[in-house]
Amino acid sequence: MNIVIFGPPGAGKGTQSNFIVEKFKLHQLSTGELLRKEIKNRTNLGSQIESIINAGNLVSDDIVSDLIEKYISDKTYKNRLIFDGYPRNLIQVKNLDNLLKKYDQKIDMVLKLSVSLETIKRRISERKDLEKRVDDNEKVAIKRFEMYEKNIEPVIKFYKQSNLLTVINGEKPITEISDEISDLIEGFKGWLWEIRQYKYAGKQILIKIWLVSQG
Fold this sequence. Notes:
The chain is α/β, with parallel strands linked by helices. It has helices at 13-24, 31-40, 44-54, 61-72, 90-102, 117-131, 138-161, 174-186, and strands at residues 3-6, 27-30, 81-84, 109-114, 165-169, 191-200, 203-213. It has one domain (3-190): P-loop containing nucleotide triphosphate hydrolases (Rossmann fold, 3-Layer(aba) Sandwich).
């Protein structure tokens, strides 16, 4: 099962991706993390990416596509990926679709976290205090939000027409969002699970274990 989860920067895509990874044993593919890894490793590409991000712009589709293909082509992650923050425009949608077809895969579910600009600004401010990330300041956040809104409408339309899109209210508490996403995944046709019995602290307990999707 491959899932796309997206929304404006600061919408909580990473938080919900981590939840899905832990519960359903999938693999998170965050374009943001891939880009920051390049910056951290101080590669030539990383220096280019850092300049683009600091200016409040988005990294080119070609750069992101090349980074993503490394994971899609790896059989370890086949049909077990969560695309966090990708795609953001129709070019990226097409790139992702072509890459998945190239390796005999597809997107099974698309989740969109819907959040207001005011909420994004508040979350960016809070995260900046905690993580000191270089791309986190209000002006950059507003610019990235506006760019996202401009580019995302065709993406929403594409996935809606493909009957893959579910819009989720990202203003709700994190646990409520996680519960809603969990219900959606559990209800997905072809998802397999089984009950296993374990012994803990002298007691027998039953645990629902999620397996791979048939799709």
